[in-house]
Amino acid sequence: MTKQTCRVVVLISGNGSNLQALIDQQAAGLLPIDIVAVISNRPNVMGLQRAAKANIPHQVVDHTEFDSRELFDTALQQCIQQFTPDLVVLAGYMRIMTADLVRRFAGKMLNIHPSLLPKYPGLHTHRRALDNKDLQHGSSVHFVTEELDGGPVIAQSQFDIQPGDTEDSLAIRIKQLEHKLYPKVVGWFAENKIALQGNQALYNGEKLLQPKMIQTDL
Ligand code: GRF
Question: 124 catalytic, yes or no?
Fold first, then answer.
């Protein structure tokens, strides 16, 4: 059964092209979600402009104004909670979260990471894929758990690395596929197709034994 409308809060730190993909799909009537707020830990970023243009409430909780990660995450949690989200979507949100914050939104928080997890959690994923002479690269959407980029993966998209590829060319292709992959998985959540049980992702109530592979046109 489809939830009435899934209330989504999107957390960003910068550009927000994945946010834009969600905004566009919602506007086109292709996603049963309502993006009720965009929250950035950095002021003056492009993603905030995207939210403003789409008339979405947007706020900054600037991590540099807090003395500790705990104090910052407490403020962030309060900011998120005022919008009573069903789902929190991390879209280029570049802060490590405290366990408290992650637990508060257990099973209700998704992240997109530019690698074929469990390969390359953390930063510089494109460089690491090139350095290791990987044949393929891609992106993963996972439930957020206390382990950085380590929560159960729900879905992935991938493409072949070409001989002339650079970090920049990989970054461009990754974004293209992410803009299809992320809205699809957010849609699954909104339609109650996916859930987190303990440390296990479920799809239609069944244990997801491996990530769903989403084909893109790349
Ligand atoms: C994406 O590549 C995502 O995988 C990573 O951060 C990037 C955010 O890009 N977590 P954007 O801000 O959505 O353009």
Answer: no
Give the per-residue pLDDT at 207.
98
Distance of alpha carbon 140 from the chain centroid: 9
CA–CA separation, 175 and 8 (whole Å) = 21
Return the pLDDT at 93: 98
Take atom 9 of ligand 1 and give the residue whose Cα is closest: 92
Question: For residue range 121-162, what is the model confidence (pLDDT) as tens digits?
Answer: 999 999 999 999 999 999 999 999 999 999 999 999 999 999
Index of the ligand 1 atom closest to the CA of residue 112: 4
Single pTM value for the model: 0.97
Residue 3 has pLDDT above 60, yes or no: no
- Average pLDDT, whole number, for the chain? 96
Atom of ligand 1 nearest to the CA of 113: 4
Q: Which of 58, 113, 137, 142 is catalytic?
A: 113
- How remote is the CA of residue 1 from the centroid of ligand 1, in Å? 30
Taking CA atoms, 64 is separated from 39, 40, 43, 216, in Å, by 15, 12, 10, 38
Distance CA 3, CA 5 (A): 5
Residue 205: how many other CB atoms lie within 10 Å: 10
